[in-house]
Design goal:
The protein is an alpha+beta fold. It has two domains: 145 residues, Tumour Suppressor Smad4; 130 residues. It is built from five helices and eleven strands. A six-stranded antiparallel β-sheet has the order 2-1-11-10-7-8, with no helix packed on it. Helix 3 packs parallel to helix 5 and helix 4 packs antiparallel against helix 5. The longest helix has 60 residues. The radius of gyration is 37 Å and the shape is rod-shaped.
């Protein structure tokens, strides 16, 4: 019996890693053991999350049977993912594989509810595909997924198991370190924005004082020449334009604060302190904007009262 089947790292370890870290959209199936054995009890449901498993008596098989099943070959058959479904491939040259009581000579597409038997008197298994959201690997808890990863992805590669375990732990450690790094990054960014906000507040206060002084100077200049009044007015216009730029800067800081706060929400537990700082700074900026709007309206009313409007100037 010739097949194109070949055990691959991608089909076991690669698919297992994807099932653990990127389970969204991935499906799994269940092998229901209907025969009592040393490794599996009758009625046991074995969830398969990798794309490739082997059935047999060999210790590398993910679905393993003990030595009492003499008609089960060391590597008897393989179940492999194909497109959106799965197929079974007989591997034994001497012992047949049955699907729904019929011996198969080459690969065979499996449907939910099919029965698989390894040799005529060998163990019987049911092939089941869960329905709806329960068919997704993401419906399996992380702890169980990690156990299935160890049992199914690493079993065929015992010699590499310790290396893979170390890589896996390093990946988790790297993820934790990345979250801590991100949290520190967000916190540093928010501290910078806090300093910028404080500087803008100081500049706005100084700008208000300058504008108020220029308003007084403009009133006093009414007894002076037109050239002197025009010079004071130009200074006032420049001061008001600079103040408007400060208001726009404050608005930009507010938008940046919102983005930083969203980033902090996406970070892990380590980023919560940064989020609290962001919320405090956001409130500080909101209070500043409210005060700024109130002051600006008051100054406009005073200015209109003293000098009239652009359409109806008093001078």
């Amino acid at each position: 019996m010739e097949t194109n089947y070949k055990r691959t790292v991608a089909g076991s370890v690669g698919a297992g890693m994807a099932a653990v870290f990127n389970a969204s959209g991935r499906q799994y199936y269940i092998l229901e053991h209907k025969t009592e054995s040393l490794y599996h009890h009758a009625g046991e449901s074995q969830k398969i999350i990798v794309d490739q498993v082997e059935l047999g008596r060999d210790s590398s098989c993910q679905v393993r049977f003990d030595e009492s099943f003499e008609t089960v070959s060391r590597r008897h058959a393989a179940i492999v993912k194909e497109g959106d479904g799965w197929k079974i491939i007989p591997l034994s040259q001497t012992n047949p594989t049955f699907v729904n009581g019929q011996p198969i000579q080459s690969e065979w597409k499996l449907n939910s509810g099919d029965e698989i038997r390894l040799s005529s008197k060998g163990p019987l298994l049911g092939f089941i595909i869960p329905q709806g959201k329960q068919s997704l690997v993401s419906s399996i808890g992380m702890t169980e997924r990690l156990n299935l990863f160890r049992q199914q992805a690493l079993r065929p590669y015992k010699r590499a198991m310790w290396i893979m375990a170390i890589v896996f732990l390093l990946a988790i450690a790297g993820l934790i370190c990345w979250n801590v790094y991100q949290a520190k990054k967000f916190d540093a960014e928010l501290q910078t924005k806090q300093a910028q906000i404080e500087q803008v507040q100081s500049d706005l206060q100084q700008s208000d004082e300058t504008i108020e002084a220029l308003n007084k100077e403009l009133i006093e200049s009414q007894t002076k020449s037109e050239a002197e009044k025009e010079a004071v007015q130009k200074k006032l216009d420049r001061a008001q334009a600079e103040r408007q730029k400060l208001v726009e800067t404050a608005n930009d800081l507010y938008e940046g604060m919102v983005v930083a706060l969203d980033n902090a929400d996406d970070a892990s537990e380590a980023a919560k302190q940064a989020q609290k700082r962001a919320e405090a700074l956001q409130k500080q900026l909101d209070d500043m904007k409210a005060k700024d709007q109130s002051l600006f309206q008051t100054k406009e009313e005073k200015s209109d009262g003293l000098f009239g409007t652009k359409e109806n100037p008093k001078f």
